[in-house]
Structures are given as structure tokens and as C-alpha cells.
Design a protein that fits this description.
The chain has 171 residues and is an alpha+beta fold. It has 5 helices and 7 strands, in the order βαααβββαβαββ. The protein has one domain: Gcn5-related N-acetyltransferase (GNAT) (Aminopeptidase). InterPro entries: Acyl_CoA_acyltransferase (IPR016181), Bact_Acetyltransf (IPR050832), GNAT_dom (IPR000182).
């Protein structure tokens, strides 16, 4: 049975571990080890994750498959969004699954959690950024009804990369 759990300060070590593992699994083959390690050390530093978990306009959720931590979701709204998108928008900043747990419907469960959170906040739009070369993720989001609306630069160490910004308007 799959389940979800909201992440708390007590879960920081697990959050840091799953964040580093999933990001490295997803992007290690396409980036230099130096750039990847610099990013992992900065983005997933304990103090940074603590501040993110404690932000009242952000929430993290773990997803478990057969009692094993499989991945996580981070959503932001209001001023916590990584780019100004205005009121009425919820950002899916991070949605990652370990490779062993992909294609089990867990990504959809995490997105449904984001949609539920958006609805609970009265937000009518969910948006996210996807690396332009992550074809599996782009196809997944398009299948669920996300459409591109812009792009931005994502800095990974010394490498500037392009993310496609996608949105879905909720009914």
C-alpha cells in the first residue's frame, strides 16, 4: 500500500538523503561530477532544508511504496514560489522519485497532492519547471494536462541549463 506523509523538521535527515539520491539519479549522467556535487551540497544543505520545511508557504510530502521511502514533493505558494507567479498559483518546485519506484503511479499521487493543496488554498493554477532534455518528465506532465508557458535558466554549478515552465489550470 502506498502512503504519503507531510515532512516535518524531525524528517530533515531523510529529506536530505532522498533529495540528494533522487537528484543525483536523475541528473548525474548529464552533468559533471563537480557541478553536481556543488549543487547537492548547496541546494540540500541541512540549514537550507530546515528553512524550507519551516516556511509557512511551502510543504513537503514523502511518498512510500510498501513502507519504503520512494520520493517526495515540494510545493510553494505566495512569496515562497521560486518565481513571481502571483496569487492563485501553486508551484511544484520539486517532485522526485527514486528510479526503482518510477512508473508505479507514485508521481501521479504526488501531483494529485499538489492539486489538492492548490484547491485547499483557493489557487486555480499549478506550475512547474522541467529541464528541457528530460523527455520522460515532459511527456508525463503533458499527459496530465500541463502546457508550456515560458522558460528560465537553471544554474547547476557552472552550467546554465534551460527549464521549460509548464502550467495546468484547475477546474
Amino acid at each position: 500500500m502506498d502512503k504519503m506523509k507531510e515532512v516535518t523538521v524531525a524528517d530533515i535527515a531523510d529529506l536530505q538523503d532522498i533529495s540528494r539520491k533522487t537528484f543525483a539519479e536523475t541528473f548525474a549522467d548529464d552533468n559533471s561530477a563537480a557541478d553536481l556535487n556543488e549543487y547537492l551540497d548547496t541546494a540540500y544543505a541541512t540549514d537550507k532544508l530546515l528553512a524550507e520545511v519551516e516556511n509557512p508557504e511551502s510543504e513537503f510530502y514523502f511518498v512510500f511504496h510498501e513502507d519504503e521511502l520512494a520520493g517526495y514533493l515540494k510545493v510553494n505558494w505566495g512569496s515562497a514560489q521560486s518565481e513571481e507567479q502571483g496569487d492563485g498559483s501553486l508551484e511544484v518546485e520539486r517532485i522526485y522519485l527514486l528510479a526503482a519506484f518510477q512508473r508505479l503511479g507514485l508521481g501521479r499521487q504526488l501531483l494529485d497532492q499538489a492539486f489538492d493543496q492548490a484547491n485547499a488554498l483557493g489557487n486555480s493554477r499549478v506550475w512547474l519547471g522541467v529541464w528541457e532534455h528530460n523527455q520522460n518528465a515532459l511527456a508525463f506532465y503533458q499527459k496530465i494536462g500541463f502546457t508550456p508557458f515560458s522558460d528560465h535558466v537553471f544554474q547547476l554549478g557552472t552550467d546554465a541549463q534551460r527549464d521549460i515552465l509548464m502550467e495546468k489550470v484547475l477546474n
